[in-house]
Design a protein that fits this description.
elongated; alpha/beta; eleven-stranded mixed sheet; 2 domains; D-Maltodextrin-Binding Protein, domain 2; single chain; three-stranded mixed sheet
Length: 350
């Protein structure tokens, strides 16, 4: 039998796994006639981790295609409510009123935790320390110069410049913004009353705004005198200086996996695997600004094969996938919690 070049090309495309970046979206897939697609969107905080998850998961399950768009937690939740995705990612698990808008139900899957770093751009200033008084004062607009006495007090011998502070913040609705502002609201009444703990805080003045964690990291890198908040992996990848923050014990702690694990060790997950954010607003030890991130799936999937694909994905993420977390500076979900998550998804997703 003689095949035309078009027929041969189609045959090859039907059996070969592919990887690509489409419109900024990581796509890991193996195309076949029985392929199942799961499309998600949401938090940028865990995007480097999810890219690795989905790449390795696809190798084990070549008939399942997983797309994830890192567009921010708020946008992911909106798409989940609208039903335009099969799952969403968020650093703030959906609230009860949001869940109530989803007729197909929602199941929460905590995947990782990690530190939110305070990155800054001050050439010649290394190992900057920011106290519990100075940090919220900076982000509420009370401190506007880098050589302010409140900053200098914790940085003896450091030549702090007489330079205006430029805040670098998120332009989108962001779970990272919530984790950061939740801590500052917990430790400082002035910040709480004026800026608030929110996915879209009321930042003072005219801050530099960036889209997602990558946008804020780039804003800090490009702006002399800037200070902003980003998930630690983004700060490391961008080569940014990060501040040591004063925790509840009074110690100054640099962002790290070990310090985030210590901060999150006392967090209790609720029966539905959400958490009480007051517990991590000011942890008793470790790095003081650390958070948890979730994948959120529907309980009902009308398309054939999608429910089974979700169960396979969650099973892998909560077992083999957790081995990846350490490599990328994310905390793991404790094994007992992970096992309960798998059971909950297997029993509730149809």
């Amino acid at each position: 039998m003689i095949f035309s070049s078009i027929t041969l090309r189609r045959a090859v495309m039907a059996s070969v796994a592919t990887f690509g970046i489409v419109g900024g979206t990581a796509v890991y897939t193996a195309t076949s006639q029985t392929a199942v697609t799961l499309s998600g969107a949401g938090a940028t905080f865990p995007a480097p981790l999810y890219q690795r998850y989905f790449a390795q998961f696809s190798q084990k399950n070549p008939n399942i295609r997983v797309n994830y768009q890192p567009v921010g937690s708020g946008a992911g939740i909106r798409q989940m409510i609208a039903g335009t995705v099969q799952f969403a990612g968020s650093d703030v698990a959906m609230k009860d009123n949001e869940v109530g808008q989803v007729g197909r139900g929602v199941v929460f899957v905590p995947t990782a935790g990690g530190p939110v770093a305070v990155a800054y751009n001050l050439p010649g200033v290394n190992n900057l320390k920011l106290s519990r008084q100075a940090l919220p004062a900076i982000f509420s607009g009370k401190i506007t110069k880098w050589n302010d006495p409140a900053i200098a007090a914790a940085n003896a011998g450091v030549n702090l410049p007489n330079l205006p502070i430029r805040l670098a913040v998120r332009a989108d609705s962001s779970g990272t913004s919530f984790i950061f502002s939740n801590h500052l609201s917990t430790i400082d009444p002035y910040f709480r009353g004026r800026v608030t703990a929110s996915t879209t805080p009321n930042w003072p003045g005219n801050p530099v705004r960036g889209q997602g964690n990558p946008g804020v990291a780039q804003s800090v890198k490009n702006t002399r005198g800037a200070v902003g908040y980003v998930e630690f992996a983004y700060a490391k990848n961008a080569g940014l200086q990060t501040a040591q923050l004063q925790n509840k014990t009074g110690a100054y702690i640099a962002p790290s996996l070990q310090a985030a694990n210590q901060a999150l060790s006392s967090v209790d997950f609720n029966a539905d695997f959400r958490i009480n954010f007051s517990e991590i607003g000011d942890p008793p030890a470790g790095y003081p600004i650390s958070g948890v991130t979730w994948l959120m799936f529907y309980k009902q999937y009308p398309q054939p094969g999608q429910a089974d694909a979700v169960k396979k994905l969650v099973q892998w993420v909560m077992t083999d996938g957790q081995q990846i977390n350490d490599d990328l500076n994310y905390t793991r979900i404790p094994a007992p919690i992970a096992n309960r998550v798998i059971q909950a998804v297997n029993s509730s997703v149809k």
